[in-house]
Amino acid sequence: MDQPSRLAGTVRPGGRTARVRAAVLEATQDELVEHGFHGLTMDQVAARAGVGKTTVYRRWGTKAGLVADLMNELANQSSAHADTGGIEADLYANALAVVEAISDRRLGVTFQAVIAAATSDDQAAQALRGFFQRRIEEWANVVDLAVERGELPKGTDGAEVIRAISAPLYYRLVVTREPVTEEVAEWSVARTLAAARAGTFAVKARRAMGVREAVESRG
């Protein structure tokens, strides 16, 4: 998910609206890092950004609206997927990008704050889901390229492969609170790639149907 830890590039020269948005989103991220989602306030964001409270309330409405726009901007600034010419290196690049993002002092804390908010706020959950959906769709392309090169079975679900790469990393980040290292990333890639080469991600729909039919037959 390789994106900068600090927002950049949101300001168009001479564009006051863009400058205001950049300042507000920067302040939103600062407040999330320092106080978390529940400590985030519209008034404090406005003061930190140096803009009027009325402007912030009118444009973003709620603190969840601020977070949604922040996540959208982070997604916009994320880099494109890797294209090394080999699926193992591409998937490792994805896993390493996740490790670097969630290990970053600023960006990692931002993600944890939004993940925590998503458990109790629908708009924050939608913002988080939108961010990850865009990143998953971007990186799923490396799986499609691998299928075209004959490295993976036809019908392999690229999105599910990318989810399988990231899942153990985020589990350590938010559930067990264990270190998320490059070694963990390597393990995740190795396991996921072995499963993908074995056709696990290509036949999941047929297997699910088989389980369902077995259950129905018992009924």
Automatic annotation (TrEMBL):
Organism: Nonomuraea insulae
Stored Gene3D superfamilies: Homeodomain-like, Tetracycline Repressor, domain 2
Key words of the record: DNA-binding, Transcription, Transcription regulation
Keyword ATP-binding included in the entry's annotation: no
Family annotation (Pfam families): TetR_C_11, TetR_N
Upper classification of the organism: Bacteria, Bacillati, Actinomycetota, Actinomycetes, Streptosporangiales
DNA-binding span(s): 41-60
Keyword DNA-binding: yes
All copies of domain HTH tetR-type, residue ranges: 18-78
PROSITE patterns assigned: HTH_TETR_1, HTH_TETR_2
InterPro entries: DNA-bd_HTH_TetR-type_CS, Homeodomain-like_sf, HTH-type_TetR-like_transc_reg, HTH_TetR, Tet_transcr_reg_TetR-rel_C_sf, TetR_C
Protein name per Swiss-Prot or TrEMBL: TetR/AcrR family transcriptional regulator
